[in-house]
């Protein structure tokens, strides 16, 4: 039997506030265990939370960036469960009255753009982190670091409209880009500020009812999200083909072995015994407040991608890559402002520049080649001073040293020879020394022209203008 994959994603994104959601403790990552704590985030008796206004503003910004409807009134609730890393015995979250509803994101697929609905966005506080002794060489002991407790999060819940692991990965890439453009989260997966849970189920093709879903918990990279979903689809397919039911549960993904394994049975909403948070009043998001937040939004990735195609005439694929991050898009536009040939600029950024940055695991914000330097090199190519081959050498040196292209050309003697008289003498010498090849050319064997070009490039130490060489050889051989 053929099955259709149904995927819904729940993403937790840490908001870029300097202090926690209900107290003034720092959200700085990497501090000594339990340093960023106080009686409020540790849940001491008698303390009261005070809501961080910036958290609400960032959450509204995220809602607007993802086309969610901001609710005029939303409310915090207590989500009750008992883990060692949850000091109060409950998590302050939102349940039936979240801040945002009914949004959407557009992802790019092989079949074209696809809109994925967002069920809701809600605010909540993060839990702490359990550290088990086997990771510290102390088997049998466990520790808790409460630095993350009370760090502000938004949870973004998608509709179950993703149909493949590849779509799920594209959705995460698009969502990360939107949140970074809006400057509400740095989305650093290594530091835990962008975490994903995937709900995966299968149903027979054509069936409307959903199958039993399995939750894959806290996967820490886009690549592993895709691999975990692919493995889970294979596992559920095997279970169903054997005639067995899929069990609703939470599973973890082991990246080293590329498999999922059971963690616990999956809870339902009633298991958490939600009720309104009695220590916090409901939040009223007035139309004036929402509009003031809307005015702070920059041009978002989808709008920028469409504008790049229309304004610069570059392919949709190029525009999609260049608008993945706001900084990369800005880098491209700065280059084009200095050298108004968008496609060559795009080619160099997407090719040589991104290749070198990927090798160094660098971000465009740390790029050693400035837009002015790249544009300056492209002007030299356009003027015939540099050949494409020599430009690659210049670019790599520029990337490694930060030197200006003109300085590198002078130091390495890389100026392209475009003087017709000088190249004409080289062409004459090669023709005179190659009577056999001349006869082959006259006999109609045009491919022998590459021999002449190669000899001329060798004689000029690779500095001859190949386009001019080609024309000179054709003219002189036709007359000989």
TrEMBL record:
Name listed for the protein in its UniProt record: Aspartyl/glutamyl-tRNA(Asn/Gln) amidotransferase subunit B
Domain Asn/Gln amidotransferase, residue spans: 330-477
Reactions catalysed according to its record: L-aspartyl-tRNA(Asn) + L-glutamine + ATP + H2O = L-asparaginyl-tRNA(Asn) + L-glutamate + ADP + phosphate + 2 H(+); L-glutamyl-tRNA(Gln) + L-glutamine + ATP + H2O = L-glutaminyl-tRNA(Gln) + L-glutamate + ADP + phosphate + H(+)
Function: Allows the formation of correctly charged Asn-tRNA(Asn) or Gln-tRNA(Gln) through the transamidation of misacylated Asp-tRNA(Asn) or Glu-tRNA(Gln) in organisms which lack either or both of asparaginyl-tRNA or glutaminyl-tRNA synthetases. The reaction takes place in the presence of glutamine and ATP through an activated phospho-Asp-tRNA(Asn) or phospho-Glu-tRNA(Gln).
Keyword list, A-Z: ATP-binding, Ligase, Nucleotide-binding, Protein biosynthesis
Subunit note: Heterotrimer of A, B and C subunits.
Any one GO molecular-function label of the UniProt entry: ligase activity
Pfam families for the chain: GatB_N, GatB_Yqey
InterPro entries given in the database record: Asn/Gln-tRNA_amidoTrfase_suB/E, Asn/Gln-tRNA_Trfase_suB/E_cat, Asn/Gln_amidotransferase, Asn/Gln_tRNA_amidoTrase-B-like, GatB, GatB_C_1, GatB_Yqey_C_2, Gln-tRNA_amidoTrfase_suB_CS
Domain of life: Bacteria
Enzyme type, top EC level: ligase
